[in-house]
Amino acid sequence: MSSPDSNLLSINTATVRAQWSLPEIVAGCARRGIGRVAPWRDQVAATGLKESAQRIRDAGLALSGYCRGGMFPALDRGGRRAALDDNKRAVDEALSLSAPCLVLVVGGLPKDSAGRPASKDLASAREMVRDGIGELLEYARPAGMPLAIEPLHPMYAADRACVNTISHANDLCDELGAGVGIAVDVYHVWWDPALRSEIERAGGHSGRLLAFHICDWLVPTTDLLLDRGMMGDGVIDIPLIRSWMESAGYRGAHEVEIFSAGNWWKKDPDEVLITCIERHRTVC
Ligand code: ZN
After folding, report:
1. Are strands 254-256 and 102-105 parallel, antiparallel or unpaired?
2. Dihedral in degrees, nearest 10, Cα atoms 36, 42, 43, 44
3. Ligand 1 centroid vs 213 CA: distance in angstroms?
4. What is the CA(7)–ligand 1 centre distance, in A?
5. What is the pLDDT of residues 165-174, one digit of tens each?
6. How far apart are the CA of 225 and the centre of ligand 1, in A?
7. Structurally, how many domains does the chain consist of?
8. 20 in a domain, yes or no?
9. What is the CATH number of the domain that holds 174?
10. Is position 218 within any domain?
11. Which of 36, 98, 108, 229 qualifies as a cystine partner to 64, CB 3.0-4.6 A?
12. Is 171 inside any structural domain?
């Protein structure tokens, strides 16, 4: 397996969000010769949409995705309508930023006003997700903004995403048609025995492989959300999964996305970027 093309390295801005604002991240990546970023909506909002787009353009950076839309399930029609409206705004922002896709974390069980799970009906949450993406597609498809369903590890089924395998995401794409694809994040899908065949199914003429997120699975993992590892520090065979992505025709970015409250978020962000570059070259 040859080293990956360094031009494909992208930094998901969550990776250094604890240390840097979006303009600092953009400047830091440009300084290190990293050509792509994937910003989050709250960071863009804090800087301002216009200003964010301008700074990214001026730094010569491109986006590998925009994080994120989704969170479709809600207890009532009003809640689902509000989610759809917010997702439409996310599509508009993604267009302003020239993102190649809007990443969808689809949502889990409906929540009450205090944010607690208010239902045990997972099947109906999954229907709301399908319907929500379908409605959003009517807006995103003519606007030319691809939607990338990101299957999340099943440990997030209740609170973040009830689409937990690439197989389920592929089924949704089959049902919903053009304009929707898949973001493959190794952290969420590395354990899946059907991973290789489902990547193949998403690739080729299906053209559904819209994003590739990398980090590592630490053993032990001490926090369900905020203990992701740097590539090479855990048990995911990233070069193997990359080879499957490439065999399936994927030629896009390799986006480093690390939430790490106890480790990488405490380090000098320049050092984090240098480590990302080095690990991308040597263990991805
Ligand atoms: Zn991801």
Report:
1. unpaired
2. 70
3. 5
4. 19
5. 999 999 999 9
6. 12
7. 1
8. yes
9. 3.20.20.150
10. yes
11. 36
12. yes
